[in-house]
Design brief:
Blueprint lengths: L1 H13 L8 H6 L11 H5 L17 H4 L24 H10 L13 H11 L3 H20 L11 H20 L5 H20 L3 H17 L5 E4 L2 E3 L9 H10 L11 E3 L2 E3 L4 H4 L8 H28 L3 H30 L9 H19 L7 H34 L9
Antiparallel strand pairs: 1-2, 3-4
Helix pairs in contact: 5-6, 6-7, 7-8, 7-9, 8-9, 9-10, 10-16, 11-13, 11-15, 13-14, 13-15, 14-15, 15-16
InterPro entries: Transcr_Regulatory_Proteins, Zn2-C6_fun-type_DNA-bd_sf, Zn2Cys6_DnaBD
GO molecular function, one term: DNA binding
Keywords: DNA-binding, Metal-binding, Nucleus, Transcription, Transcription regulation, Zinc
Length: about 425
Amino acid sequence: MAGSVFARKEKIASRPKVKTGCTTCRVRKVKCDEKKPFCQKCINTGRTCDGYQSPFKYFISQRIIRAPNDGIKSNDVLPPIRPTFLGIAPQDIDLLSRYFSTKTLFEVKLGYNEEARQVLLASLTDSPLRHAVLSLKALREDLETSGDGPESVVQQTSSFQYGLQQYNIALRSLAFNLSSPSSSGLKSALLCCQVFISIEQVQKNHGAMAQHIIRGLRIMHEYRARPTFVTPNKLVPAYHRQLPSLDIFIIKLFAAPCKFAEPPATATVNGTTLSAGLISLLQQPLGSHGLRTIAPDMRTKLTSIATLTIEFLSKVSQVDTTDTALRLLLEKATLLKSLESWLNDLEIVLTTIEYPASEPLSVAFLRLFHLVLKIVLLGALESSPDLYDRLRPENDRFQNIANNVGERVKAYIRCIGTSSGRGERSTLR
């Protein structure tokens, strides 16, 4: 008897530790089949699959890791930054709504009041979100104080360092809280993701911003934030109800007017009016039919599709019958065809223009906008096992363009600084 007990213990001890799989299987210490979004083992045994570990766990960029965690201790060196969100005052909502995007620096209304209200209300009790809001507030105030010239690419002010410190704390706190995801934890993750996207945009880190977008949308898919089809004719309700609509937040972010679609600043060099060194970066054609008129027109068409996409997502959130959902699938197919048609039109337009080198930044931002809409639509009402495989090429393309945009924006800013040194006053917002 004692020998058999010892043998069982030895057998259990010799089993490999469960290091992957869903949270439920990890707690039960059983092998998970790792099916997404919910493992089949949990479903077959009538258990609730609590999903997988946080995608934010290892997403602390090297630049943030190097930021001083405890180098700012004295209140004497800090700007007057205080946690002012103890109450949800209308002015607080308006302020955060404006801080969500750097595009609001040139008086753009993004319609983020509801998102700002949700974030501020949750930040009263949610520690990661509170640190994220303080980070965005510090970084945005620093941007508005210091400007967006070349020095903004390598900020070293105490306000900027404080913002990075708070961002680092928010990332670590969120990763810890999501080690065992719950409904409240998922809501916190998606609200934090909104703020993280804005933080990276303020820092002009478009590549990191794209990573947050991709991972946040994956959370919505994995945890079924909206009703979906699990089979061609079987609609299942949202697994976690009333999660923040991160996809709509992102669409609004890209739908706002883009500074790069406007005529660039000019300067006089050797008696000739040129775009002062910006031509090599923006590759703005010199003819009368350049992208300064084409890009805004293409953006108008894409923004119209974006408006219809937001309306479509709102309908999906409220769908309650299979027949209604099937009609929405037809609407989804129509929107995807509109996106394909828009892209074909853009390529036709671009073939009529000769570039000195690569495409203008205005076109790169349009491509990002187009891909965001396509990725969001492909994931709507969809929970098939191969969804992530089908989304991977689009996500990779989105990430690559965002990485390139980030480098070119910083180069653009440095070039503006060179031009400003010759007497040109210019802004990038």
